[in-house]
Write a structure and sequence with these properties.
Oligomer: single chain
GO cellular component, one term: plasma membrane
Largest sheet: none
Radius of gyration: 24 Å
Helix content: over 70%
Number of strands: 0
Keywords: Cell membrane, Electron transport, Membrane, Oxidoreductase, Transmembrane, Transmembrane helix, Transport
Number of helices: 6
Pfam family, one: COX3
Strand content: under 5%
Structural class: mainly alpha
CATH architecture of one domain: Up-down Bundle
Order of helices and strands: HHHHHH
Membrane topology: Multi-pass membrane protein
Subcellular location: Cell membrane
Length: 213
């Protein structure tokens, strides 16, 4: 990148009528978006770390109410986990097709990923409604408050991810696999795999350990 300096004004000279650009060349640093997105993911890691820590402190405070062993339906949660992990695989297929520049196949795998994500959210909402109907809402105990906050925050991230995915599908359909769209697909890929990683922690720390006596 080269710097262009404007000539100094001497005497009573008038300033140039045309704008002078002191920095020539591209203003967007190479890979700057990916670096910035990594910084965002690290900040999101801190949010989930705080939520996990909160659940670790409050997860056994039942207030004479039901525990995880009384409430959690592990087969249902296992199916839900399978849907999210499978969606990560299908997104990986979309990225492979992107390298081959096959727009139609990219759109197909993105659509399958979105459907699996919607299936995950549907089962999660079913679980929440079922718990609330049983009187195990977030206000029932500290355990349930921390549970709904942690799992609900993850579900909210998945919801935003699906909205982002649909938006990208529209962009790819309109403009194709231009460099900007390829970069956006890479960022969403990191975000989606990050959500899978967080859910593995939720499934292990909240559900599996929650059914232990």
């Amino acid at each position: 990148m080269s710097d262009t300096l404007a000539p100094p004004l001497t005497g009573g000279a008038t300033p140039p009528s045309e704008p002078v650009f002191y920095v020539a060349g591209e203003h967007h640093p190479k890979n700057g978006t990916l670096l910035g997105f990594w910084v965002y993911l690290m900040s999101d890691c801190l949010i989930f770390a705080c939520l996990f820590a909160t659940y670790g402190v409050l997860g056994r405070n039942y207030a004479a109410g039901p525990s995880g062993a009384d409430l959690f339906d592990l087969p249902l949660v296992a199916v839900n986990t399978s849907l999210l992990l499978l969606s990560s695989i299908t997104y990986g297929f979309a990225m492979l097709e992107m390298r081959s520049k096959r727009v139609g196949m990219v759109q197909l795998w993105l659509a399958i990923t979105g459907i699996l994500g919607l299936g995950f959210l549907s089962l999660e909402m079913y679980e929440f409604v079922h718990l609330i109907e049983r009187g195990a809402g977030p206000q029932r105990s500290a355990f349930l408050s921390s549970f709904f906050t942690l799992v609900g925050t993850h579900g909210l991230h998945v919801t935003f991810g699906i909205v982002w995915l649909v938006t990208l599908m529209v962009q790819v359909n309109k403009h194709g696999l231009i460099p900007e769209n390829r970069r956006r697909l890479m960022c969403l890929s990191m975000f989606w795999h990050f959500l899978d990683l967080i859910w593995v922690g939720v499934f292990t720390f909240v559900y599996l350990m929650g059914v232990l006596p």
